[in-house]
Design goal:
This protein is an alpha+beta fold. The chain is built from 17 helices and 24 strands. The strands form 5 sheets. Strands 1, 3, 4, 5, 7, 8 and 10 form a 7-stranded mixed β-sheet that branches. A 6-stranded antiparallel β-sheet has the order 15-16-17-18-21-24, with helices on one face. A 5-stranded antiparallel β-sheet has the order 14-23-22-19-20. Helix 5 packs antiparallel against helix 6.
């Protein structure tokens, strides 16, 4: 969430409590001298230095007379020396006594300034950025450099610091060099200590970042299957942009980078905040009102002021912190209020999210209070004492900051919500599977598994749903004149809604067939029963009446035309069932010769699709139509089934007196009886 970045100097001043001080065990000599002759562990070069404003290369030389320079205790603020002037370059000098027999001595620098140079006996040892012209670099790197052996053998090291202090640094409480910025010790000990410190300081944040990215991947997979839940997308983006900053953080641990990379990191942080706020609104299913949107935009404009103004050294810290106040109020004032309101209305997820957000808000407002106290000399001491409360806690070798605790709670809250949602979805899925099982049992009852033999006809039928229940249906019913009636159709949609509509249609077919076997009248009655009941859906259907002597009458309501002995039988195109009431359907009649076979298909055969996206199509379906029904279904499934498949084939096997093979059409008005 939103975090205020404390001024570098404030951070450094609170570093009095840092682990580095536990390793420093040396006694400082008066004035500008530092005794490191009995060096057994890394020593913090705190003590008293000599300072001077101005810029002269001679200041780095060991023989330079610095007796007129001003003594400065680096545990205090340099603003006590430069009260009225703010020089852009300040030099610091310290004389260090060392044992000439010591070997492998080195200096370890951390957070002196965005542009500085460290000299030992006149030779530049460490540097970052550029002082003239001023080119600032990042200052979080831990820079280690060995001291030349010939300098150690002299027994005295003159360490000179050339430090650039920008106007925005001067606007902070304690600019320039401070305690814990520079350590002297054996190179191996400093290197080991550096790695231990880095691992301890960054292990928790790295684990949180990687865990957040893993949670984001889970959220992205949930969004792909549930695109209506946009909060999953915002969760992924929130942690994705944080993960983008991790490589920068890791690299600048031991290397300085142009300051623009700090701006990139801060932009990513504010991008994470942006997506986090969108996530909260999505979680509580609330759209931002117009005034909220304006406030939201203004808040993030303030963030950009901080990124490009304060970090770039163009604005003072006071202006930058003021620019952050609207975002702090939006994220930690308005959002908690909305979450609390939703929680009181019974939204448990809002209550889970409220806890880490309140803690994050407390941490942010605490930092704001500290910053305000640091602006007044009378309250600086109080601010430094309070800063102990916000400093990182040491748990063994690891550092755990209050912000890290908030991030852990945020991850836990999001994980709990996702787990609770998954549990709820599992229960709903179990209920749905029970309903589907019941619907499947209903379909098994209403769709014929065994066809009653009809003299003079051989009937084949295969029904293969794409899911547990399907939207295809067919009914084969004997007629009073020893013929048969076929109704085949395909309900729009899939799953349980389609299966329930199939149940309605099959029941209606049986009911209507009690008083009429005329295909056109039957479809007209089915249409009128379906209009207004399908919730905007529809169904194709085809009704065919087979007379004992071979005449076949067909009416088609938008279904695929049948195939007669491997040829498509053209039928007039009519509207599907359920589109509009009062629809008339046209009957097509023809004579089915003994031995001839007519095949009826659903569109699941024609629309079978392979891995390349190719459809089985009408031509291949036509070629398959002369095959047994089971073979047609097997071919379609082998090609790639994506929809319900129904195949019904009827062959006439009896011979009546020859009748001329002809076809006629007639339009029939809907009626209530035959």
């Amino acid at each position: 969430m939103v975090s205020t970045r404390p001024p570098r100097a404030t951070w450094r001043r609170t570093a009095v409590f840092h682990f580095f001080l536990l390793l420093a065990a040396v006694a400082s000599l008066p004035a500008q001298s530092f005794n490191a002759t009995d060096l057994h562990q890394p020593a913090d070069l705190d003590g008293t230095w000599l300072v001077h404003a101005g810029d002269d290369p001679a200041f780095a030389q060991p023989g330079f007379d610095d007796s007129h320079w001003t003594p400065f205790d680096v545990h205090k603020f340099i603003t006590t020396i430069f009260r009225d002037t703010h020089p852009p370059v300040v030099w610091y000098r310290l004389h260090v006594k060392v044992d000439p027999a010591q070997t492998d001595l080195a200096l370890l620098e951390h957070q002196i300034s965005s542009a500085f140079e460290v000299y030992v006996n006149g030779a530049r040892l460490i540097s970052a950025g550029s002082i003239e012209p001023f080119v600032p670099h990042t200052y979080s790197a831990r820079l280690l450099a060995p001291i030349p052996a010939q300098d150690v053998r002299t027994g005295t090291l003159v360490i000179a610091l050339r430090v650039h202090i920008s106007p925005y640094d001067w606007s902070n409480t304690g600019p320039g060099y401070a305690a814990s910025n520079l350590f002297l010790g054996h190179e191996a000990a400093l290197r080991d200590h550096t790695w231990l410190t880095v691992i301890g300081d960054q292990a928790v944040s790295c684990v949180i970042g990687l865990a957040g990215f893993a949670l984001g991947i889970v959220a992205l997979s949930l969004f792909s299957s549930q695109p209506a839940h946009r909060e999953y997308l915002w969760i992924f983006l929130q942690f994705f942009v944080i993960a983008l900053a991790l490589p920068i953080t890791w690299y600048e641990t031991f290397h300085t980078l142009p300051l623009v990379w700090d701006q990139v990191k801060l932009l990513l942080q504010f991008g994470s905040n942006f997506f986090a706020i969108l996530m909260y609104f999505s979680m509580i299913r609330m759209r931002m009102a117009g005034w909220m949107r304006i406030f939201f935009v203004v808040s993030f404009l303030g963030s950009f002021v901080l990124v490009f103004g304060y970090i770039g050294g163009l604005l003072s810290a006071v202006v930058a912190q003021t620019a952050l106040l609207p975002l702090a109020f939006f994220a930690f004032g308005l959002l908690p209020f909305l979450l609390l309101r939703e929680w009181r209305r019974g939204n448990m997820e809002a209550g889970i999210l409220l806890i880490p957000l309140l803690l994050a808000g407390f941490a942010v407002y605490f930092q704001i209070v500290l910053f305000v106290l640091l602006q007044f000399p009378a309250t600086v001491a109080l601010a430094l004492r309070l800063a102990v409360l916000s400093s990182a806690w040491q748990i063994g070798p690891f550092s755990l900051s209050p912000l890290s605790m908030v991030n852990v709670l945020m991850l836990l809250s999001l994980t709990i919500i996702i787990v609770l949602r998954a549990t709820r979805v599992s229960r709903q899925q179990a209920l749905l599977e029970g309903e589907l099982a019941a619907a499947r049992e209903v379909q098994q009852v209403i769709l014929p598994e065994a066809i009653e033999p009809v003299p003079g006809f051989r009937i084949e039928s295969v029904y293969q749903p794409a899911q547990q229940v399907g939207g295809d249906f067919f009914q084969i019913l004997p007629t009073r004149d020893n013929g048969l009636l076929l109704v085949i159709g395909d309900v729009a949609g899939k799953g349980l809604p389609a299966a329930m509509l199939v149940s309605v249609l099959v029941g209606a077919v049986r009911a209507v067939a009690e008083y009429t076997n005329d295909p056109a009248e039957l479809l007209a009655n089915l249409n009128d029963r379906l209009v207004g009941r399908a919730a905007g859906g529809f169904s194709t259907a085809l009704a065919a009446r087979f007379y004992r002597h071979g005449t076949v009458a067909i009416a088609n309501a938008g279904h695929l035309p049948p195939y007669l002995d491997g040829h498509e039988l053209a039928t007039p195109g009519e509207l599907p069932l359920g589109v509009t009431s009062g629809t008339r359907y046209t009957i097509t009649e023809f004579h089915l010769q003994p031995g001839s076979r007519i095949t009826f298909l659903s569109d699941g055969v024609v629309e079978a699709q392979n891995a390349k996206g190719e459809l089985l199509g009408f031509e291949k379906s036509l070629a398959l139509s002369t095959e047994p029904a089971q073979a047609i279904v097997a071919a379609a499934r082998g090609f790639g089934q994506h929809d319900d498949i129904t195949v019904v084939a009827i062959q006439r096997i009896s011979a009546d007196p020859p009748v001329a093979a002809s076809a006629t059409t007639r339009a029939v008005q809907p009626s209530s009886a035959q």
